[in-house]
Design a protein that fits this description.
mainly alpha
């Protein structure tokens, strides 16, 4: 259970915009709840890179605000993440970096498309996946270009 807790916290590293000074992140400066969640890192804490410590503290703070259901869901997501190959994780990290470099409008467009896709029934989603996977790279690019250039409908959210 403790390992799952730590893994759940690690998933949440990118969530909070709070920044800490390096002097604020020595182990002794953490409160009891943070130390409890991050106990697995106690022996090596002061040798971890400051950016990693910041991320872990943000994750611990987020963890403390989660309900039991949210914690269970986060643990499940992290278990899924751990099962991915290193190559797949690196691809996901690269795509996340690309996403974060996009404008707010582009990020919103991607989120809207994702929500719209997930609202489709399972058969329709699978049909779309199959169609896309059967396209040549050129056909995929033309489809992306058509989608990008088409006028946007107003969202109902």
């Amino acid at each position: 259970m403790k390992a799952k807790t730590i893994l759940g916290v690690a998933l949440l590293l990118l969530v909070s915009p709070v920044s800490y000074g390096e002097e604020d992140l020595v182990w002794a400066s953490l409160d009891a709840s943070q130390q409890a969640v991050l106990a697995e890192f106690a022996n090596e804490w002061n040798t971890l890179p400051s950016k990693r410590r910041e991320g872990l503290v943000r994750g611990a703070e987020r963890w403390a605000t989660m309900t039991a259901d949210e914690r269970q869901q986060a643990q499940g997501h992290f278990s899924d993440w751990r099962r991915l190959s290193n190559e797949r994780r690196e691809l996901i990290r690269d795509r996340y970096d690309i996403y974060k470099s996009l404008s707010a409008d582009e990020q919103r467009r991607i989120r809207d498309n994702f929500r719209r896709f997930n609202r489709m029934n399972r058969d329709r989603r699978q049909k779309m996946r199959d169609s896309f996977h059967n396209m040549t790279p050129e056909q995929k690019q033309r489809a992306r270009d058509r989608k990008r250039d088409r006028p946007r409908r107003p969202t109902r959210d």
